[in-house]
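sanity check both lines:
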Amino acid sequence: MSAALSDTLVELRYGARRVLLAPHVGGSIAAFDEIRDGRSIDWLRPATPTALAARDPLGMASFPLLPYCNRIRDARFRFDDALVDLSGDGNAFAHALHGNAWRLPWRVGEVSESRACLHFSHEPSKAAAHHWPFAYEATQEFALDAHTLTVTISARNLSDRPMPFGMGHHPYYPRTRNTRVHAHVAAMWHSTPDLLPTHAGAHPCVDAMASKEGMSADAFDLDNNFAGWSRTATIAWPDEGRAITLDAETPFDHMVVYAPASHPDLLCVEPVSNVADWVNLDTDRAMKGGAVLKPGESVIASFAWTTRFG
């Protein structure tokens, strides 16, 4: 299949396993599930028909984060001695959020039974969602097999000047009273009430995630970035005898955990390359992440979800 815009779902299959992609909803994953013993098992929270009809990325199973992850304070930052103002990009949040690729359609490229490729191109303009002043292109490649769903993201700066850049994915997992999160991180970024990072330091959740039992998804009220992530995390449902492990390559060196007390049905454990507001943070690059792509420079990295029972 040649690259084209599509408003239909793309289905990948491998045995009893299935992935649904929604290219028209920000290049999102709409579902990742499988049939086992006659019943459907959701590895990611599936999109509802309502979310699909509304083309709401926040209602998908997972969506891409490009060309930056999380928030940018007041939708403004300085780069190369110039002000970058994103306040008119149509993002309905006080602070610019997650870039623009999640709010625009992606083109469908090559598709086979268990693999697919989605493409995205951005050219700056004054239109909503196009205020990012750097041209770039991106690709997501999805590969499903008997145990793993692998996602490979690539991006290239098409501008004639350097471009600040970050990337990631925003998965939602089924959250129950027994859901546990296992991960090793060095520190948690503490935040302001409107979720902008202030400093990285200790928090009880750091030790809880590293413990043998893992952290209960209900233990803390979290919407935080984590530094010094080992690039692997497991979400487990021990009462159901199953778990899914996220493994990521560099530069996905940071992790976000979203487990809000106000919404006990929501749980995100996200691989990202930069912490929130990294372009405004005056701290070491290793702690905040992010990159600068030279004109024509590309970046490519993969992450994968591996599932298991027992």
